[in-house]
Amino acid sequence: MTAPETEAPSRWWQALTVLALLLAIVGVASLAYLVIVRLAGGQTWNGLNWISFSALPLAFVLLIVLMLRAIWRRRKL
């Protein structure tokens, strides 16, 4: 009895995974920077707010899509 062959994930899905990871890291880093600077009484660039408040939800949605695809591939085996 041989083990079932699994297909290697395509480059597109790997790139999507890396993008989700990078968005999450950038979002958390910019949010941490915002909190630290604002608690110290400083002002930040308004675009930094936009980056932190849009990168984290987008990374979350991408991770959900990747998780659903992994579940679909697992059930297909």
UniProtKB/TrEMBL annotation:
Keyword terms, alphabetized: Membrane, Transmembrane, Transmembrane helix
Domain of life: Bacteria
TM annotation in the entry: 12-36, 48-72
Record's protein name: Membrane protein
Natural source organism: Arthrobacter russicus
